[in-house]
Each structure stands twice: as C-alpha cells, then as structure tokens.
Specification:
This protein is of the alpha/beta class. α1 (4-14) crosses α3 (37-49). The longest helix has 14 residues, at 234-247. The protein has helices spanning 4-14, 28-31, 37-49, 84-90, 111-118, 133-139, 156-164, 196-199, 210-215, 234-247, and strands at 21-26, 55-59, 73-74, 96-97, 105-108, 143-147, 170-180, 186-194, 219-224, 227-233. A seven-stranded mixed beta sheet has the order 4-5-2-1-6-10-9, with helices on both faces. Strands 3-7-8 form a three-stranded mixed beta sheet, with no helix packed on it. The chain is built from ten helices and ten strands.
C-alpha cells in the first residue's frame, strides 16, 4: 500500500508545481492500493497542488449523456464518465464543479482564485473552448498530469486544436445541453460538439505527438504509486503542435496512426 506521505514525496520528486494550475487525468488501477483508497489519493493531490496557491483540477465529464433526454450535467449528483476520482471529487465540499455541460471539472484551491477560474463555464459554445477552463490552464502557464494514462486522455489537446483553428473539428450544427444547478434550477445551452461524424474520435491519435513533446522537453516523467506519470506543460504542448502544423503544411494529421515525420519537429 502506498502511503500519503510517499505519494507527496513522489510529487515533490517529480518537481510538480504547487502554485500553478494542474489538470489531472488518472487511472486508479494503475496507481495501485493507496492509503485511504481513492479519497486518500485525492487528499494527497489537493494538499500538494494547492500548497502554494495553486489549483488542482479533476475532470468530471458527462459527455455520456449527450444524445439522451436526461440532464446533461446534474450538479446535485456525482455522475461522471471519466473515472472514480472524478465521481469522488464531484461531491467533495472542498471543490467547485464547473458548469461545463459536457466537460466539467472539479477545481480545488483558494476560494477566490477558484471562483475566478470557474466563472462563466456555462456560457461557452464549444466543449473545450479556449475561453473556458481548458484555455485558462494555458493562460496560467499550467500543466496536465497524466497518471497511468496516455496522451489519448489529454483533453487539453482538443482546446489547443480549437486555438489553432484546425479544420472540421467542430460540428456545423449545435446541440441543446442542459445543466441542473445545486439549487434545482435547470438551464439549457446551445453548444457545438466535436465533429466526430467527419473525423471520428481524433483523441485516439493524440499519442502521435508524444515523441515531439518529449523532443522539446514538454514532458517530465515520474510516478504516483505504481503508475507512470507524465507532467506536461500546456504552453509547451501548444508550441509544439503549432510547429508541427506549420512544418507539415497544415495537412490532416489525426486520421490514422501514422507517426509524425521527425523533420516536422526536430529541425531547427
């Protein structure tokens, strides 16, 4: 069993920041048995990443509700389709769940900073808008911590593609998504989804970028429990993705698993 003390030591050894914004995608199975189970791991993450004014963000997505007649995001429940940690975080009174109807996250940290960071999420018209919390990770020179998972789980990369204006990533027609707040109020929002009918789920090909990220020093490796982790610089990711797009001539790169050409990211 991995103790809280040991996990905090692993995070310190990784050099993970305590004063920035960190979005954590995780596999509890990969981490292994921890003191206090999933709640204990969440406690350790909160303690570490908010120690010096930083924000910890845990995904609590509900895109599994898309296309159904149900409330897309019910803030009175802990429904979440991206793992146990998100479900636990969603009902933790220390956190604030953002009102993104499909790609919410739970944010922990200083209450004033959390409130500013989470404000206005219900007003964005795409899932991972550059003006949303995903874009604010970039604005704050933040990080994405992949715990026992790969770049295919790196939701931030969808935001980067939108920043870059990649063609055909956003569906031409909107969907009506609903949010139920803790006070019982329900609002409906018009949102443009990912254009998966044309491109499929492009995130399955995000790992193609990993070699490029590593070449440019955007990833720091470490461990949490038994899980291999990648600490990824948000600004570094965007910089490398822009470089690859420029050198590849703007061609579609995520239609199959063909590796990126090294000259697209290694030449100076």
């Amino acid at each position: 069993m991995y103790s809280k003390k040991f996990i905090l030591e692993q995070l310190a050894s990784l050099g993970a920041p305590q004063n920035s914004v960190v979005l954590v995608h995780s596999s509890l199975r990969a981490v292994g048995e921890t003191e206090g189970r999933a709640e204990g791991l969440l406690d350790a993450l909160i303690e570490y990443f908010t120690a010096d004014g930083g924000l910890l963000c845990i995904p609590s997505h509900t895109w599994h509700k898309l296309g159904s007649s149900e409330i897309t995001l019910d803030m009175t429940k802990n429904e979440c389709c991206v793992g146990t940690l998100g479900k636990i975080a969603a009902l933790d009174p220390r956190g604030v769940r953002t009102a993104n109807p499909s790609h919410s996250m739970v944010v922990f940290g200083d209450s004033a900073r959390v409130a500013e960071f989470a404000a206005g999420e219900e007003d964005h018209i795409t899932y991972t808008s550059p003006k949303s919390c995903y874009g604010k990770i970039y604005d704050n020179d933040g990080y994405i911590l992949l715990v026992g998972v790969g770049q295919d789980k790196n939701t931030f990369m969808h935001c980067v593609e939108e920043m870059m204006g990649i063609d055909n990533r956003i569906a031409p027609k909107s969907k009506m998504l609903s949010i139920k707040y803790k006070n019982g109020d329900v609002v409906t929002r018009e949102v443009y989804s990912f254009n998966e009918k044309l491109n499929g789920d492009v995130s399955v090909y995000f790992p193609k970028y990993e070699a490029a990220f590593r070449h440019h020093g955007c990833i720091t490796d470490g461990h949490i429990g038994a899980a291999h982790v990648q600490l990824c610089s948000a600004r570094g990711i965007k910089r490398v993705m822009e470089l690859v797009r420029e050198r590849s001539g703007g061609i579609e790169l995520l239609h199959d698993d063909t590796p990126l050409k090294e000259e697209w990211y290694t030449l100076e």
